[in-house]
Amino acid sequence: MGIKDPCGKFLVLSPWNCPRVFSIDASILSIPSEKGESWVMAIADRAESVPKQTTVSRDTFTTRLGVIAATLGSAVGLGNIWKFPYLTGANGGAAFIIVYLLCTLVVGLPVMITEHVIGRTAREDAIASLKKLAPGKAWWLIGASGILASFLIMAFYTEVAAWVFAYIVKAVQGAILSTDPAVTEAAFADLVSSPVQSLVWQWIVLAFIASIIALGVSKGIERMTKRLMPALFGILIIVVIRSITLPGAGQGLEFLLKPDFSKVTGATVLTALGLSFFKLSVGMGTMITYGSYFLDDQDIPSTATRVMLSDVMVSFLAGLAIFPAVFAFGFQPESGPSLLFITIPAVFSSMPFGQVFMILFFVLTAIAATGAMLSLFEVPVAYLEGTFNWSRKKATIAVMIGLAIVGSTAALSESLLAHIRFGGIGTFFDLWDYLTSNVLLPVGGLFLCVFAGWVLRWDKLKQWLSNNGTLDNEGVVRGYYWIVKYVTPILVLIILLTGLGII
After folding, report:
1. Which residue among 8, 122, 206, 284 has its CA within the 20 to 30 Å range from the CA of 374?
2. What is the pTM of this model?
């Protein structure tokens, strides 16, 4: 269908959500009859209803590999390195992985598919996408919640990433090369308690991420993640081989891999539920935004499943890289920053060529953090671009400045602002973490499920997820629709109530 522009060309809109606009010379369309003219006028009237934002100027991913790399980069983060492996070992090893995968199939994966299809169908940012699919309704607040969540997560996530980047330099210098955990603990305390170091490293991280975002979706995010993800897997495999070949590594392998179903309790299932939701970067607008850059013929259910499985593989490999070495040298496994910044340096310092492997480990950790930060940063940038028609450079600078201001509160939470506490929550760092993890993300995920299952029509979802009938996946789509309508909302509600301490 097309409409004649003032330059004598017809703008032809593709039938799939009108994602592309191209032109053909009007001379090839000869419609002399009155009926033909009426036909043209009817098409013109219909074309006027197409949102102006859907134009060729919108940047997109250019390859299927780019789609998977960028989406996987968003899902993979620091949690893969310090959280998932520890929780696996502490909750029954392989038994926990089975429970986690089942939870992911009914929680994280359906929400990811929902966000992807909303984004690709609307071809807009997180807010505008919901406005387009539900005009005149308040569902756009889901997108607003996601944008706010991504911004606040970046406020404290960039500080953790700053520690990782700082540790690459410290590892190269040999400043954290000690087998004594007390020494590595003192080095970490010196870093987080220094206002200058905390702020400078956070600003370096922000400038690095902003420089990639400013290049655009295809030349920035896609190009970078297509290089980072293979590098991540490559470095992981190198470190895994070294770790599992250490004398005494068997105890670490047993910690991670031995199924112990006696440890699978109700609390374990709740842990797996929460992890399956938060691990895939859903509920924060990132997957809606990335979905808007998807190829027209991208198989969304298949892509989301591949990302989920690859994310689990990264977490599993991280566990193999860490815990055999931890147990081999007589250290105790811990979760969180203490594992990453205190135990790990001591572990690698204990082995031959340990400094080299320590550098590699913190480089791969920085890679994991970078992919996640790119997706978080892109959400508010896409909003400013689409809503206010700002250039990408202007939007990127504005978000970077905003994050530098708000993020400084997280960076200074262990130094100048350590005295400011928010009830039982803690510091500014803890506050941003609590608001996003316990409130914004589960609330956003819950209403996304309600929107997909109870507002969007089945025939529309079937059309969108089958790429207008070109994919033979009705069984998969029906399964997704039933789960997202009846199962996922209940489970996400449980996650929300658990996070708020109600249950």
Report:
1. 122
2. 0.86
